[in-house]
Amino acid sequence: MDSQNPFEGEIYRRKGGNSVREVRHGSRGGDIELLGLSHKEIGDDDARLVYLNDPVKSNERYEFAGNSIRTSKYSVFSFLPRNLFRQFHRVAYIYFLIIAVLNQLPQLAVFGRGASIMPLAFVLSVTAVKDAYEDWRRHRSDRVENNRLAWVLVDDEFQQKKWKDIQVGEILKIQANETFPCDIVLLSTSEPTGVAFVQTVNLDGESNLKTRYAKQETISKIPEEEMINGLIKCERPNRNIYGFQANMEVEGKRLSLGPSNILLRGCELKNTAWAIGVAVYCGRETKAMLNSSGAPSKRSHLETRMNFETIILSMFLILLCSIVSICAAVWLRHRKDELDILPFYRRKDFAHGAPQNYNYYGWGLEIIFTFLMSVIVFQIMIPISLYISMELVRVGQAYFMIRDMLLYDEESNSRFQCRSLNINEDLGQIKYVFSDKTGTLTENKMEFQCASIWGVDYSGGRTISRNDPVQAVDGKILQPKMEVKVDPQLLELSRSGKDVKGAKHVHDFLLALAACNTIVPLVVDDTSDSPVKLLDYQGESPDEQALAYAAAAYGFMLTERTSGHIAINIQGERQRFNVLGLHEFDSDRKRMSVILGCPDKTVKVFVKGADTSMFSVIDRSLNTNIIHATEAHLQTYSSMGLRTLVFGIRELNNLEFEQWHLAFEAASTAIIGRAALLHKVANNVENSLTILGASAIEDKLQQGVPEAIESLRTAGIKAWVLTGDKQETAISIGYSSKLLTSKMTSIIINSNSKQSSRRSLEDALVTSKKLTITSGITHNTGASDAAAVNPVALIIDGTSLVHILDSELEELLFELATKCSVVLCCRVAPLQKAGIVALVKNRTRDMTLAIGDGDFPTSVRSIALCFPEPNFGEHKELRCANDVSMIQMADVGVGISGREGQQAVMASDFAMGQFRFLVPLLLVHGHWNYQRMGYMILYNFYRNAVFVLVLFWYVIFTSFTLTTAITEWSSMLYSIIYTALPTIVVGILDKDLSRRTLLKYPQLYGAGHRQEAYNSKLFWLTMIDTLWQSVAVFSIPLFAYWASSIDGSSIGDLWTLAVVILVNLHLAMDISRWSWITHAVIWGSIIATFICVTIIDAVPIFSGYWAIFHVAKTELFWLCLLAIVLAALIPRYVVKFLYQYYSPCDIQIAREAEKFRSPRELRNTKIETNPILGSPHR
């Protein structure tokens, strides 16, 4: 039967009405509000009308989008303007554009017009070439995609047609293993039952086969032989890939259509010879294309902080220009009577007979022009090359992270993925890790362990593995693909007749395991001649697969599923059950049910779900002892870390069935309000149940998870686990993963109202403060220290969070949570996960990381509800799956390549195969990236500032005339060629500590928490050092050549070479790991500068012709270079030595241990590290 999404109505309303509904993270009101949608039939004005096999009439009223797609951003004509527009979103580029424009004015022309444009043109050109290449690849991909061929019904026969020419309303035929060219409603298939198997790996990453069904009324129609007429009235295009609502009118019948009847573009047809359908959404209106936008762009915390220092440098630039203009004004005022005859500033030209006036604009304008000219001269104070350098460094860092074999998962053959290049350095400053449990901490390999049936626990006996073959109806011998541990006592009961005591309940329970699911049984084809064929259960949920295999192991083998019935081989006897209705999971009910017409002519409702939802619909007046026993068994299973489900049954009489059937048909054929109606129908039939029992499934921890969590805790990172599992299950997993320890004091909050939540939080705060005082820790020490001495674990459930999130209680929860070492949230919904991340992210300056595999929670797995999420990006896109909202809310999102698909990977910034890889990612690569990037930013500020200050001192010395001794070409090439490459190479390759040391001493990660690589103190110390070095560079040649006749161009070349040598040696002093590449770029840059200066001075048309050849042949020139380097760097070397000797940081101590001790000694060395203090609140 059709599976419907209770949220589709809201999604449609948002798309059609352009209205935005506020969504609350913590409240279930978001779910309940959706059930109050209008029950009115959708009107023609609000629906898409598709006429079967009549594309002309379908497009007559509204011309729908064609099937041609375009993922490229530019065309040949739009590339230049659009690319430049995108690039000039960076304010720094606009700044340099203004500088270049000012330099074109005759009054302000300090440099040559071509030279002033070159730096900006170079940066723009490099980015444009990169963008052009990427867009060319998109064009090529689009061309290949649009020209693919598909079979389309034309003149009563199928003909090949290019994808781009397909129109809405046309009927298509898709062969096995072909890709669907657009979104089509399934009409018929090669299977008699009308079922089609599709693989959606290209859409959502899930490799399991999904089933789609054709309606019984269209299964037998053959388009080539008979005319197919009809009308589909469907919702407008939207990006909800798991929802579809429509009606189809065929031969006077009105049929409901849902997600199980639509085949989406990009999916592949599998295990089905052919499928025929009608196109309803084409091209950019397909769900795949509507979901093609990437994750919201995130910005590095370090880059955001860098902008503040950039503003300071801008103010410093304004200060320098103001000083020059004010001093020039004073100088002009004092010498106003001498301006006609003063050298370098004559207002009159006496060269040609009668005196002629130079262009002199008056005292006021001259001051303004002087200020603007100063901006042009000192423009490189703002490092334009820093932006492109950061991009190149991030690309290099990403390359080495991807190639790191410690991040390679052999089991899935997957490498580390760096999907966002903007936040590499943020990996070195993570303070909070928010993790999902299932598929992230665990393997997501579900194994059936035991069961409680009618109050009897079948878990204590000896278990054996079993997957015995069973004789199928068609003569094939089928064997379940997976082995299952079975209990001998339960196995014996399952083989007994119903007359044996307890056997009837066992029969019903195992029948519920086999029937209450959406599993599709497939016979695995092989080339062997063996009569035994493997039976593979395909399903979207590993839980359902495990339960189906368990039922098969006990003799209840599901062998066939169609849209109308299922076949179960019960102890060798094939029995057919009519599937009269199926109510799938939703987040409000937290259960699913199937209505079966049994062979004995009875109608039974089988229901399974979470214990909290099931016990509310079970008739507790009956079988009280059985219910209590089952509850006790559930408690035991949960404490063992097992995942549990409760099963119930109810038999419907004829009247009850007719009432349900009428209500179900009415709800299924509604478009608007379908979700609310189906929800109401499900609630009506899922009540007064008789309990059958409970199942327990084990999801084992991934390899290395306990060690990884311990390393993260030692590194000062707080780990929070957010899971939808029961509290007892979550606590058990917490202990086995070392998230919880015996030394921790656990605070548990389970509240059912806002008032009780407030009391629980207040009491918990009092308790945590008492523990802090007991430990002798003062409040001035910080919460992190208190937690480290007397650790506290907070355990809170989703019901409590309903009343806490989005209310004034958030502050209490935040205050309590930050005092705890561990926070464990149970029974939380996807939006609650995002709300918890936002709770921390919006109140602290600490960096947050969320990691998950994107699997769907048990309560919504089958229909994958889509939630509208607030503040998840600029466009507020709809996001799906369990962990996606949490991943996108955090500063850094990491996706696990889970068995449930790639939803989290596609929405993440980084992706990897195992949770344990988080340790080398953060402690090694994160540390390296942060240290490199922090140093590179400071170095770029220093490198440009020292050059500008040399120019500034010369302007002061030459009476503020803004003449420059350094050639205009050297000024422009300084940041691009002379000094750019070394900082990029060091930013990619330098390693302050080895991988072994960083992994052995996780405390070294605290350097990122303390912002040791980049902070205000380091910035100002760097600027003071820069000031001294610029004085040394300027003054030593000045005094050395004071009495000589050397011209300005010669001393300018000396200053150029001195600055380049100085900044490269400055960089060399700070390099921790030398390689041949580092040597090549450091010394090569110095040699390249000598060559460039020589070439520039050898060109006759440039000023300073042959200057370097005159000055470089004297010994004084080389002595000046040596003196400048020594005078500039010795003070820095002395200060650095004293600081590292008397007040070394953790990293310096570890580096010393690495350098002067053998590996064996190092393994036995203990390094005492600084405490990691908590960061202040926002």
TrEMBL record:
| Entry annotation: catalytic residues | D436
Primary subcellular site in the record, as a coarse category:
membrane
| Documented EC number(s) | 7.6.2.1
The cross-references to InterPro entries, in alphabetical order and at most eight, read: ATPase_P-typ_cyto_dom_N, ATPase_P-typ_P_site, ATPase_P-typ_TM_dom_sf, ATPase_P-typ_transduc_dom_A_sf, HAD-like_sf, HAD_sf, P-type_ATPase_IV, P-type_ATPase_N
> Which protein is depicted?
Phospholipid-transporting ATPase
The source's domain of life comes to Eukaryota
Q: Give the UniProt subcellular location, in the record's own words.
A: Membrane
Q: Which reaction does it catalyse?
A: ATP + H2O + phospholipidSide 1 = ADP + phosphate + phospholipidSide 2
Q: Which PANTHER family match?
A: PHOSPHOLIPID-TRANSPORTING ATPASE 1 (PTHR24092:SF91), PROBABLE PHOSPHOLIPID-TRANSPORTING ATPASE (PTHR24092)
Q: Which UniProt keywords apply?
A: ATP-binding, Magnesium, Membrane, Metal-binding, Nucleotide-binding, Translocase, Transmembrane, Transmembrane helix
Q: Cite a single GO BP annotation.
A: phospholipid translocation
Gene Ontology cellular-component annotations: plasma membrane
Q: Which GO terms describe its molecular function?
A: ATP binding; ATP hydrolysis activity; ATPase-coupled intramembrane lipid transporter activity; magnesium ion binding
Which SUPFAM superfamilies does the UniProt entry name for this protein?
Answer: Calcium ATPase, transduction domain A (SSF81653), Calcium ATPase, transmembrane domain M (SSF81665), HAD-like (SSF56784), Metal cation-transporting ATPase, ATP-binding domain N (SSF81660)
Q: Where are the transmembrane segments?
A: 91-109, 308-332, 367-388, 941-966, 972-989, 1018-1043, 1049-1069, 1076-1096, 1116-1135
The positions annotated for binding ATP are: D436, K437, T438, E544, F585, K608, R643, T723, G724, D725, R827, K833, N882, D883
* Cofactor(s) recorded in Swiss-Prot or TrEMBL: Mg(2+)
List each copy of the P-type ATPase C-terminal domain by range.
905-1144
